[in-house]
Amino acid sequence: MTRFTEDLATTLTLTISGKTYSIPEGNVKSLALDLYPYGYQGEVSFVVDSEKSKDTLLAPLTTNDLIEVSLTVATYVNNTQGTLTPLSLKGLVTSRYFTEQLLHLPAGKDIMLLRHYHLVFADPAQVLWKQHYPCDLLVDSTLKALITAHTPTQITMVYNWDAVLSVHYPVLSLSLGTAINQASFYDYLIWLVDTYNGVFSYDYATHKYTLSAAKIKSGTALSLDHEEVAGYIVDYPEVHRFQPNVLNAYSENPQTTAITNAAVTTKIRRDYIASYPIAADMQARVTLETARFKQHLHEVRLEYQHFQLQVTPPGKLVNFKGSILWNKLLYIQAKNYRVKEWHLNAQVTEQELTMDMNMAYSHYDMECNLTLESVLETFVPLPTYTLPSYPVFVEGKIVSEKGADDDMTYQFYTDSDTSANYYKVSIPLWTKQKVRADYQPNQDGGQFYFPPYKNARVLIRLEFNRAYIESFLDWGTGTALPLDSQGNQLVMGTSATSQNIIKHNYVDSKPELQIQRTQDKDVELLQFSDGYILLQTQQDK
User: Fold this and answer.
1) Which residue from 344, 361, 363, 360 is spatially nearest to 352, judged by alpha carbons?
2) 0.85 exceeded by the pTM?
3) Which of 238, 297, 285 is nearest to 257 (CA)?
4) Comparing C-alpha atoms, which of 227, 233, 220 is closest to residue 318?
C-alpha cells in the first residue's frame, strides 16, 4: 500500500441539540473513511484545549443527544488553476470516546491540558435503520408507502423503481420484532433490493438515497489525474459456472425452466424451487432470476500518491482519457468506469497532541485507494445483511358479510385475475385492518370441507406479501361440552336456531350418539342409547 504525506484542509462541525460546534482545522488529528455506493463509515479524532478556556464540548458529547457530523476534506493549495472538489460528508455519530491529558503541578493544583476526542460515524440510514426493528402491516399498499412510513427526517429518499415499489400488494408485512428475527429494517431494505434486483445508492453530493431499477450509465465523466495515481491493478473476478434453473413444484403443472449461461460447466447447477399454482407467478420468477443472473466484469484497483484535487466518491463516472500520460496501449485507457469504493486513512505527522487554532491545514501521513468498476457493470454491490425472518403470527377474526352479526356464516371472494379464492380477516392489533388471507386445507384431508366462519378467532401467518389462515384458536359457540360428558360433537350451521349437530357423549358411563337438526322451533332428533333408539320430531313453543 502506497503511503504519502500531504497537507489537508478539513472542516469539521458537530450539531448537538440544535447547537453547532466548529473544530479548528489544526485540531483534527486523524481521519479514517470508507466510502461505498450505498453509504459510508468514518472515524475522526480531534483535540480540544482545556488549559486556557473551558472545554465546551465535554458536556454535550457525554449526553445521549443525537450528534450530527458535517465533514469536508480537501487537499490544501494556496492557488490552483484547476477545479478543487472536496469530499463532503454528513452523518450521525454511533460511538465516541476520549482521553485526557493532565499537567501535574505541586500542591495538587493539577491542570487539565486537553481532551482527545474520537468519533465513529456513518451515513444516517445505517445509523438509524440498523436500530429499527418494527412489526407492521399494510393492506392494499405499496413498498414505497411502507418504506416512507419508516423513514425518519434525517433520511431523504428518492424513488425511481416503480416496477417494484409502486405495485399494490393486498398484504405487506414487517416481521422484524419477532423473537427469532435478527434482521433490522436496514437489513430488510438491502434484502429487498437484492431479492428484486434493484439498486440502493447514496449520493455524496446531495446526501440523498435512491432506490432505482438500474445503475446510472450516462453523465459527464471526470478524467483521473495521472500524477496523482501511484499504480493500479486490473482484477477479473470468478466466473459463474453453474446452470441456473427455476423449478415449479406445483403438482398440477410441474416445470423446470433453464436460464442461459454461456459459461456453464456440465452438471453444475443452481436451482430455485417453489410451488407456483398460478402460471404468471412462475413466469415472474423466471424473469426475475434471468435479470438477477450476472457475470461480473473486471475492476480496477488504484493506489494514490497524492490526495485528489477533485475527489471522486462512489457513483462518480471516471476515465483515463484526459492526459497523454494515459498511454493508448494501456488496457484501461479506452474504457469508462464508475467509482465503486473510496478509502482514506490519514494521521497527522506530528504525534504530539499540539493545537494550532490558526492553521488552515494539517500535515498528514496517509493512504488513499479507489476501486473502479466498468460503467457497463450491472452487478450491484451491497453490504452484508441478515435475512428477515418470516412468518410473523398474529391473531385475527374471520369476516363475513352474510347473515346477521352473530351468525356463523362464511364468505370467500374470488380474485378476478387468478380465480383464486380468499377470505377476509380482521386484525385487531393493527386497527382492525382487513387482510386478504388464503385458506388451505392444511392438516385436513380433502374429504373435509369446513370453511372458517364469521368471528372465528384464528391464527394468521403473515409472510412478506401474503397472509394465510394457519389455525383456529377457539371453539365455536355452543361447541364445547362439559368435562364430565367426555364427549365430542360436530356443530354445523349459522346459529343456534339453524344448525345440525352430531354429538357423542357418555351417560352413566355408557356411550350415546345424537344427530339433531334445528330450524327455528322445528327440532328433529335421532338418538342411539343403551338399549334403545329414539326418533323424535317436535316444535318448541
Assistant:
1) 363
2) yes
3) 285
4) 220
Say which CATH topology domain 392-472 has.
OB fold (Dihydrolipoamide Acetyltransferase, E2P) (2.40.50)
For the chain, what are the domain ranges? Answer: 4-127+338-366, 238-292, 392-472, 483-539
Residues in a beta bridge with 257 = 246
Please name which of 142, 130, 175 lies closest in space to residue 394, comparing C-alpha atoms: 175
Q: What is the DSSP letter of 489?
A: E
Q: Say if residues 347 and 30 touch (Cβ distance below 8 Å).
A: yes
What is the rounded distance in angstroms from the CA atom of residue 6 to the CA atom of residue 363? Answer: 6
Q: Name the one residue in this structure whose C-alpha cell is 469504493.
A: 341
Gap between the Cα atoms of 390 and 172, Å rounded: 12
- Which string of b and e fits 360-397 if b means at least 16 CB within 10 Å? ebbebebbbbbbbbbbebbebbbeebeebebbbebebb
Per-position pLDDT tens, the chain of length 541:
899 999 999 999 999 999 999 999 889 999 999 999 999 999 999 999 887 788 899 999 999 999 999 999 999 887 666 688 999 999 999 999 999 888 777 776 778 788 999 999 999 999 999 999 999 999 999 999 999 999 999 999 999 999 999 999 999 999 999 999 999 999 999 999 999 999 999 999 999 999 999 998 878 899 999 999 999 999 999 999 999 999 999 999 999 999 999 999 999 999 999 999 989 999 999 999 999 999 999 999 999 999 999 999 999 999 999 888 999 999 999 999 999 999 999 999 976 666 555 566 789 999 999 999 999 999 999 999 999 999 999 999 999 999 888 888 999 999 888 888 899 999 999 999 999 998 777 667 778 888 889 999 999 999 999 999 999 899 888 889 899 889 999 999 998 889 999 999 999 889 999 999 999 989 999 999 998 999 999 987 6
Within 10 A of 51 (CB to CB), how many other CB atoms are there? 12
Distance CA 155, CA 185 (A): 13
Going by C-beta distance under 8 Å and a sequence separation of 6 or more, which residues neighbour residue 28? 10, 12, 44, 45, 46, 348, 362
Burial class (CB in 10 A: 0-12, 13-18, 19+), 536: exposed
Instruction: Kindly report the three-state secondary structure assignment for every residue of 298-342.
Output: CEEEEEECCCCCECCCCCCEEECCCCCCCCCCCCCCCCEEEEEEE
Contact residues for 483 (Cβ-Cβ < 8 A; gap 6+)? none
Residues facing residue 460 across a β-bridge: 394, 469
Strands 421-427 and 413-414: what pairing?
antiparallel
C-alpha–C-alpha distance, residues 308 and 229, integer Å: 9
